[in-house]
Amino acid sequence: MINFNYETDFELENETLYEEWVSKIIDSEDKTEGEINYIFCDDEYLLQKNIEFLNHDTLTDIISFDYTMGNLISGDIFISVERVKDNAADFNVDFVEELKRVMAHGILHYCGYKDKTEEDSALMRSKENEKIVMF
């Protein structure tokens, strides 16, 4: 089950389309869909989560809490819409494209992909691109 929650004045254009897409991402990685909660928020909201749970006093575009057990993918994915907008401008890409990248990124972490090394980051970016095309 995929849920969308809004802690800011943003809303997805077509939740059903995004829900089906996230399900396809999970299926494409041979995983089973559990409960995925996307929480769209602003910088202030996500900064507080970053400080409270990760002890990081920095802005970020995404924080994910992974409750995956085996192949059952579950978790809470917090996304700062403000950060995504700024990143889209910085990378000269469309906001919706960058939003899809971040949404896929959270799911890919749950599927076991990392991004701490250059090699892992390159694989993660490749997987993000592969999943965006599935939209």
UniProtKB/TrEMBL annotation:
Primary location class: cytoplasm
Q: What class of enzyme is it?
A: hydrolase
Where does the protein end up?
A: Cytoplasm
Question: Which Pfam family name is an example for this entry?
Answer: YbeY
**Binding of Zn(2+), residues:** H105, H109, D115
Required co-factor(s) are: Zn(2+)
Q: Name one GO cellular component term.
A: cytoplasm
EC number, UniProt record: 3.1.-.-
Could you mention a single GO BP entry for this protein? rRNA processing
Q: How is the cofactor bound?
A: Binds 1 zinc ion.
Specify whether Nuclease is a keyword of the entry: yes
Which NCBIfam families would you find in this protein's record?
rRNA maturation RNase YbeY
User: By what name is this protein known?
Assistant: Endoribonuclease YbeY
**What is the species listed in this Swiss-Prot or TrEMBL entry?**
Flavobacterium beibuense F44-8
